[in-house]
Write a structure and sequence with these properties.
The chain contains 11 helices and 8 strands. By secondary structure, it is of the alpha+beta class. Strands 1, 2, 3, 4, 5, 6, 7 and 8 form an 8-stranded mixed β-sheet that branches. The model has no long low-confidence stretch (mean pLDDT 95). Bound molecules: flavin-adenine dinucleotide (FAD).
């Protein structure tokens, strides 16, 4: 396995794992974990070296996000969102905007979040209803984003709005101290509870055109899909790991352990095989995209389908192996992992939409249909 995965895996065990349970129980931002990632240069992973980053690409992003998700999927998701934002800025922002933001992210001083989803467009987050009115040198943004991972905690929020005059959609970076920016507090997730994914409101927020990102496209969409898939791949592997640990430790009065029962062993084999296949499919797809392979996008869609399904199946099967205490809150990590595994199904583009996208790609049609 590559050094990115191995290093991040060791790092996650030491600096993320100890805080995962508390963040889940309290539904609190994983502050210690994110601080450790800030201090150890992780937020600079995909930022070009010219801006103080490590200049890595989608493959390393997949490896690191997966390895971190094996220990705390909430912290990993907050981290991956910032990577996506940084990658998007690296690709599309003007030089001055890059100079202002990227070195701060690379050094861990600032982190980024993505505020795209809205209630009115649901899973079709690329069709914003947030309104934008152009004035001389700035725009006024009004609207509400329904879920923003790292809400309140990020320093800049990438958001998408629709220009009321010409109907164009535009991408912006909104600094956290912008007047008119506020958050509602209502995220009480079933899983991924450390994400603080609260709604964000922009009310008459005046954004200088300096903060407009010039382009947008598949480049950052792919790193986003890979990041979401990494979360599921990490959770699937964590479930295999925790189930194995548990069945070896769990003994009956007669001294016999669960791990000696053949049915339990074959269940473990299924958990591991599924997680391993999902992880390797994802890594292969991520490196395919990185190398510019023609079928890279459809490989990533396939990997996101495979990893989502692996995590959900492992969550259910893993909980069964842990038995009664796997169904009780806070007694065993399996219960949190099972809840965390479910999120990827609904995070846009969700499981059903992904299958539509991939199917359309396979028959040679444009993958985006809009809201039908
Ligand atoms: C933990 C968490 C963190 C999140 N973080 C962020 C974030 O940081 N930034 C952000 O912008 N958003 C974030 N989201 C929002 C997430 O992307 C939304 O859940 C998503 O936009 C789905 O919106 P919706 O629930 O309105 O789905 P809806 O549009 O109501 O869709 C519901 C379901 O209908 C089906 N469906 C809808 N349309 C189609 C179609 N065309 N084809 C096939 N099936 C379809 C699917 O099964 C879909 O799951 C987060 C969500 C969660 C749960």
């Amino acid at each position: 396995m590559s050094k990115y995965y191995d290093e991040a895996r060791s790092f996650g065990e030491k600096y993320l794992a100890p805080f995962a349970r508390e963040a889940d129980q309290k539904g609190a931002f994983p502050r210690e974990a994110i601080q450790a990632l800030r201090e150890n240069g992780y937020f600079g992973l995909v930022i070009p070296e010219a801006y103080g980053g490590q200049g890595q690409d989608i493959g390393a992003h997949a490896e690191v996000c997966t390895a971190l998700a094996e220990w705390d999927a909430s912290a990993s998701l907050c981290y991956m969102m910032s990577n996506v934002g940084a990658y998007c800025l690296s690709l599309y922002a003007g030089e001055k905007l890059k100079q202002e933001i990227l070195p701060k992210v690379a050094s861990g001083e600032a982190i980024l979040a993505l505020a795209y989803s809205e209630t009115g467009n649901g899973t079709h987050f690329y069709l914003p209803e947030m309104e934008e009115v152009t004035e001389d040198g700035y725009s006024i943004l009004n609207g509400r984003k329904s879920f923003v991972t790292t809400a309140r905690e990020a320093d800049y929020y990438l958001t998408i709005s629709r220009n009321v005059e010409d109907g164009s959609t535009n991408l912006w970076v909104v600094p956290s101290n912008t007047e008119g920016l506020s958050f509602e507090s209502n995220y009480d997730g079933v899983g991924l509870r450390g994400n603080v994914s609260d709604p964000m409101v922009l009310k008459d927020a005046k954004i200088d055109h300096f903060y407009r990102i010039q382009g947008n496209g598949d480049g950052d969409r792919l790193i986003f899909l890979v990041g979401l898939a990494s979360s599921s791949a990490g959770i699937a592997m964590a479930i295999a790991r925790e189930a194995t640990r548990y069945v070896k430790e769990r003994t009956y009065s007669n001294g016999r352990s669960l791990g000696e029962i053949e049915t339990v062993e074959t269940n473990l084999a299924e958990l591991y095989a599924r997680a391993y296949a999902a992880r390797e499919t994802l890594f292969a797809a991520a490196y395919n995209v990185q190398s510019g392979a023609e079928d890279g996008f459809q490989n990533v869609n396939a990997a996101r389908i495979v990893t989502t399904s692996a995590a959900v199946k492992n969550g259910s099967q893993g909980m069964r192996l842990v038995g009664g205490i796997g169904y009780v809150r806070g007694k065993n990590p399996m219960e949190r992992l099972m809840r965390d595994s479910l999120g990827a199904q609904v995070m846009a583009p969700g499981y059903d939409v992904l299958r539509v996208w991939l199917g359309r790609q396979l028959v040679g049609l444009p993958y985006l249909k809009g809201i039908d």
